[in-house]
Amino acid sequence: MNGIALSYLLLAAQMGLYAVLWTLTAWLVRSERLTCLLGAAYSLCWAAALVLFARRGVLDPWLCYTGADILVLCGFTLLWGRAYRFDRGRFPLLRWLTITLLAALLLAWVGPSLTQSHLRLLLLALFSGISGFLMICYSARPLSQQVGAPLSGLLSLLGLLAILVWGQRILMAQSLPLPSQDIPSQSHPNLVALLVVWLLTTGLQLGQFFMVVLRNTRKLNELSLRDSLTQLLNRRGFETHWQAQTDPQRALLLIDVDHFKQVNDHHGHDTGDRLLCHLAHLLQHHMGTPAILARVGGEEFAILLPGEDLANAHARAEYLRSQIAASPLVCELGILRITVSIGVASGRGSSLAELLKQADLALYLAKRRGRNCVACQQELAAQLN
What we know:
Blueprint: H1 3-28, H2 33-54, H3 61-88, H4 93-110, H5 117-147, H6 149-172, H7 188-224, H8 235-244, E1 249-257, H9 260-267, H10 269-287, E2 292-295, E3 300-306, H11 310-325, E4 329-331, E5 334-336, E6 340-348, H12 352-368, E7 374-376, H13 377-384
Parallel strand pairs: 6-7
Antiparallel strand pairs: 1-3, 1-6, 2-3, 4-5
Helix pairs in contact: 1-2, 1-7, 2-3, 3-4, 3-5, 4-5, 5-6, 6-7, 9-10, 10-11
EC number: 2.7.7.65
Protein name: diguanylate cyclase
Transmembrane segments: 6-29, 36-56, 62-81, 93-112, 118-139, 151-171, 191-214
């Protein structure tokens, strides 16, 4: 066994390890299970093809030529199908089967004969080029979302160059004498092919792992900042968004559902949860951007209004209170009317703790007035005086 054949076997072992790693990732990252399993299938196809490449001249030509080429094409079509799944959330099974079966039938029709090598290599270049191009197209959007448009464009360009080099290696073999097209032969094109295959597969695997890990890291980070019931920000997420604001003028609304304990006691906690979700929807609908909404307690919500003074914040709070009162929750036991009390505070350069304290005191004043009303820090100061 010469050095080229041994190198292909080592590369096959590396691809086998990638398959094991993708399988473990599929088990650990359940939200990307199919994507990871497609990565494992791609790695196994390439591992098997590389083993057959190394055994050309030893095993049956139908197996180590036609069979290996079909495995290579399956690997490429799995690549673009995997990229499609990662971008669109579903696997294009019908299109994948059509392209793969067409390629396999054409390669089987050409056969392993060395006299047909030129045609076989042309088909290999054509289908691998199409699959590689589709993979890059479907990878562009998730790449852009995760690493930004400039870096995404650079990575896509490198991918296109790798595909061109791969296709160039295949086409170069067309000008060689037929025996020199045997993959294990220690010819210059095969040395180039070995380097290109290693760089291409290593880059693809590392890039795909990076995308999966980055997406799931961001998902976990986003989940840690969200309330699982209402999908609004939780207190930690609210504090994070507060710190990210650059406008020193800010207003804060602190909202409490009136008589929420009675809802849980008389209608059950399921109805109470539905009420909270209904209220979260109303807040999102009526406040819009750039308001930042959060659930900061059991039945307590907070709204940050960047750039708003106290008068405008009070007017928006009053509008919100009236809209909530006019939007009852329809449940199994009938119509459940909802009212809220709102405390409003505003300041320039104030800390979150300061505004929360002022809004909480204003909320307490609104409850003392009989609930279903709005109170602000200015009214609280006037009452204290």
